[in-house]
Amino acid sequence: MGRVHFIAIGGSGMSAVARVMLAHGVAVSGSDAKDSAVLDSLRELGAQVFVGHDAAHVADVDTVVISSAIPESNVELAAAREAGALVLHRSQGLAATMQDSRRAAVAGANGKTTTTSMLTVALQSAGLDPSFASGGELTGQGTNAAWTGSDLFVVEADESDGSFLVYRPEVAVVTNVQPDHLDFYGTFANVEAAYGTFAASVQPGGLLVACADDAGSARLAASAMESGTRVLTYGFDDRADLTLSDHVADDEGIGTSTELHLPGGGHVTMRLATPGSHNALNAGAAYLAATAGFGADGTRVLEGLAAFDGARRRFEVRGVAAGVTVVDDYAHNPGKVAAVVRTAADIAARRGGRLHVAFQPHLYSRTRDFAAGFAAGLAPADSVVLLDVYGAREQPMEGITSEVIAAPLRELPGERNVAVGGSFEEVAHALASSAREDDLVLTVGAGDVTELAGLVLRALGEG
Questions:
Q1: How far apart are CA 47 and CA 271, in angstroms?
Q2: Is 156 an active-site residue?
Q3: How far is the C-alpha of 386 from the C-alpha of 408, rounded, in Å?
């Protein structure tokens, strides 16, 4: 590919691909709208990184890597096309670096970043040392990607724009199939068809690991089995090949213990330091993929899962001030929001405290399509602040504001305070003034809401 330039190199997916290419010795440059710690780390690895976009940045490059969020009007992309440079989607760039690796690809509307991270750590614990590329930084390792030179590669397969079809994995994991990214797919039927193609891309003799608890994933598993693909399912459903049971949280609600009933008979105890039954499911998927997919030793896999301390922005405890715990999470669709809020509410209740949530909706189309689902997911909180919609690649839509979530939320049973709008500084001080010792503050969303967590901690400290 020659010299490679990444447009918006600071994004989680783009930076992961850039790290892998740098490890391969590829000459990498990139640009992003603003400076960040991610850009600093890429510079340290040898990338030439620019802040701001300029056609001059691609004057001497051979290949340009983009994501679906980059518009054709971007000056660097337009200049690259005019110059005849090779333009690749980030998934194509990553696939090119995998060469002859045995590949595991993790897909799903919810949980794929955590499952990718868990599978990576499980294989590391088993001594298999996989290369990996994830959408979130492994907090214990300080990176979201690495090239190790082993014959295994674990990748988070992003379904948002259909690009997850390029990897042709030996082991595929599908955590769930749910209606999301309808701005791209249009209908849920198209979403399901894309996952069907993903399952069909598993290499001959490979394995599909699918969640039996999710209706869409269960349908996918049944269809794949009919087509002759080897399939193993997991879930709390007793019809799953790997059945989870006796899921118990510790007194603080963070650590958990779950019994795994194995496909070949017998059972083992799985202990995790990450909260929630949804994370137990993610770990069950990782256990199956590692053991049944790659032959990893089950005992060592469980040791790795027990030591896993999370991925960045996946129920990440940002700090404690004045006895209040502040947690940040990337959840941005109804299923993810429901899982993280339910888990946080349980932890707060165990401590005798309350849960305060600041949620930033992501995309106008998603807010429009799933307002009622977001309201239901937020309902367990004692108070909710709905920030302005983070439009990302979309332009504002008439009548679509955070109020479309607030209205149905106010109508749901139970007592909770619901507020809409405000600057980050205003919201941070409001949260700090209402939170008490043993309470939990949760900042949620895929936009810049992550900056709010630090402001809340500072406001609590000042109080």
A1: 39
A2: yes
A3: 13
| Segments of the chain with pLDDT less than 50 | none
Q: What pLDDT does residue 313 have?
A: 80
* Domains 99-307 and 316-462 belong to one CATH topology: no
Q: Report how far residue 99's alpha carbon sits from residue 158's, in angstroms, rounded to the nearest whole number.
A: 19
Q: Which two tokens stand for residue 123?
A: 């294989």
Residue of 76, 137, 156, 159 marked active site: 156
51/448 Cα distance (integer angstroms): 18
Note the pLDDT of residue 392: 84
Residue among 340, 258, 268, 334 nearest 298 (CA): 268
Q: Are 253 and 285 in contact (CB under 8 A)?
A: no
Residue type at 359?
F
Here the contacts of 67-76 (C-beta below 8 Å, separation 24 or greater) are 67/8, 67/11, 67/13, 67/14, 67/161, 68/160, 68/161, 68/163, 68/184, 69/8, 69/11, 69/392, 69/393, 70/7, 70/8, 71/393, 74/7, 76/5, 76/7, 76/31
Name the DSSP letter for residue 107. Answer: E
Q: Is 336 a catalytic residue?
A: no
* Residue reference for tokens 């165990």: 350
Task: Report domain extents, the chain.
Answer: 4-93, 99-307, 316-462
Q: Just give the CATH number of 99-307.
A: 3.40.1190.10
Look at residue 463 in the predicted model and tell me its pLDDT.
Answer: 59
Question: Containing H/E element for 210?
Answer: strand 207-211
Q: What pLDDT does residue 67 have?
A: 87
Catalytic entry in 63, 76, 97, 112: 112
- CATH numeric code, 4-93: 3.40.50.720
Which one of 97, 113, 120, 325 is the catalytic residue? 113
CB 229 within 8 A of CB 202: yes
CA–CA dist 278, 262 (Å, integer):
19
Yes or no: say if 418 and 332 are a contact pair by the CB < 8 Å rule.
Answer: no
Is 291 a residue of the active site? no
Please give the CATH superfamily to which domain 316-462 belongs. Mur ligase, C-terminal domain (3.90.190.20)
Name the burial class of residue 62, with classes exposed (0-12), middle (13-18) and buried (19+) by CB atoms within 10 angstroms of its CB.
middle
